[in-house]
Amino acid sequence: MTLAVRVIPCLDVDAGRVVKGVRFENLRDAGDPIELARRYSELGADEVTFLDVTASSSERETTYDMVSQCAETVFIPLTVGGGVRSADDVDRLLRAGADKVGVNTAAVARPELITEIAERFGSQVLVLSLDARRVPADQPATASRFEVTTHGGRRGTGIDAIEWIREAAERGAGEILLNSVDADGTHEGFDLELIRAARAAVDVPLIASGGAGQLEHFAPAVHAGADAVLAASVFHFGTFTIAEVKDALAADGVTVR
């Protein structure tokens, strides 16, 4: 059975506002997260992802009140990430109204966190949020030449991204949010090589993120192995709508919701 591909808008939040930049830099304001979440729910989004993009780097907790307001406004699945450091953080987010919780920096620092969350809440709750980049030419290459980064793409780790995906899935991650740091905000298309490598490594659902700029960019990501496609600025700034993305996918033979 072929599962329908999901189209997911992403709300990158900093200091209570949705922001978007290029490769995590030069952020500009994109609106109120509560209002955007409500609008995307009405416009046919299959899910909404809400990421506090500076929670880890500035060592702040995710804003639970904002999550609660989003949950009251949005009647589709809500994934929340940013600053999640423990299973108790996950518990608080689920109680606030999140359906799934993304982990990144804390899981890289202590991979056992993935196991703890999966065992306590189930794999269906846990999304590994991975910011991967190509290893710079002046640094030692990892096996796949893709490296895990943390703190909103600010810090390299030397950890091979594909090996990390494999370990996370084995530990119980139910889904992988695969964001290309190199492609993020460029509007030049998803990193298909990264998606293919991840798809070859794991069977869990993959969400492709980073680089969407044209309607023609989405179907290749699905054909490369993505189960869902995520975008931010093209939706926030009105480049095209969720419905137009679904129409473009359907025209390319992709089953959508």
From TrEMBL:
- Sum up the protein's function in the record's words: IGPS catalyzes the conversion of PRFAR and glutamine to IGP, AICAR and glutamate. The HisF subunit catalyzes the cyclization activity that produces IGP and AICAR from PRFAR using the ammonia provided by the HisH subunit.
Q: What class of enzyme is it?
A: lyase
Q: What is annotated as the active site?
A: 12, 131
Q: Which Pfam families match?
A: His_biosynth (PF00977)
Q: Which reaction does it catalyse?
A: 5-[(5-phospho-1-deoxy-D-ribulos-1-ylimino)methylamino]-1-(5-phospho-beta-D-ribosyl)imidazole-4-carboxamide + L-glutamine = D-erythro-1-(imidazol-4-yl)glycerol 3-phosphate + 5-amino-1-(5-phospho-beta-D-ribosyl)imidazole-4-carboxamide + L-glutamate + H(+)
- List the molecular function annotations (GO) for this entry: lyase activity
The protein's UniProt keywords, in alphabetical order, are: Amino-acid biosynthesis, Cytoplasm, Histidine biosynthesis, Lyase
Q: Cite the Gene3D superfamilies for this sequence.
A: Aldolase class I
Family membership noted in the UniProt record? Belongs to the HisA/HisF family.
Protein localization: Cytoplasm
Indicate what this protein is called per its UniProt record: Imidazole glycerol phosphate synthase subunit HisF
Its source organism is: Brevibacterium gallinarum
